[in-house]
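Suppose a colleague, Dr. K., hands you the sequence of a protein chain of 284 amino acids and asks what its three-dimensional shape might be. Before reaching for any lab equipment, you can write down a predicted structure in token form. Begin with the sequence itself:
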Amino acid sequence: MPASSTADPSAPPPPEPLDVAVADSHTHLDMQDAPVAEALEKAASVGVTTVVQIGCDLERARWAAEVADEHPAVWAAVALHPNEAPRLTLEEGPRALEDALAGIAELAALPQVLAVGETGLDYFRTGPEGMAAQQESFRRHIALAKELGKALVIHDRDAHEDVLRILDEEGAPERTVFHCYSGDAEMAKVCAAKSYYMSFAGNVTFKSAQPLRDALAVAPPELLLVETDAPFLTPVPYRGRPNAPYLIPVTLRAMAEVRRTDVNVLAGHVAENTARAFGYPHAP
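The predicted structure, expressed as tokens, is then:
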């Protein structure tokens, strides 16, 4: 969940609908302006028929679980964001982190919650004083995902080496997703060897993102997902305007261009992969 940059508040126009329905594997409906029902209807109108709503702290995790319970098109993932763990520890004390983790564990056990995430490491915003708390929280979330048999959704920012190391040390869950994949092609090969899913967001369209495109080009098709991370990371040509699940087709078409494949073929892979990664039924 990166910092927002929405200089232009106007919503981009709806893209041409996809012929093959897909899922937005990572979104934050609670941070978007549109009511949930409206956002889902707009997404479905362009072929985005499923969304995974992410809860990044205890309050937002509760909201995610409630919305997933109310809307069949929504599944939830819950966790303490990597930046939340050091905040709780440093500002409120170790007990606050323990209490929050206990609350996340209760929510993660609900049937509409299919994943533990986004968890992981973020060394961009958290300095050395918060790294221990982040790493401990990450290890606890890994253990929870394995205990419940649910997917693990990883936030990895400026921390590739430690994220991969801790996954190796703890033993990654059977289904592990790198949300908003941020590594290069070499890391993509490492993830592929370990069967980690790689989810690409709108930043793959940014001019400066050639390393991401290189990674996308070498990632196996059976491990690819697509996401918005909305309202953040709006794809070109709408960068700087608010993102939402209905813009998934823009990113997916850009991904298809990078991979030199038909968008319907890629959409079929992504739809099947997302269902397999999160463990919900998929009807071809």
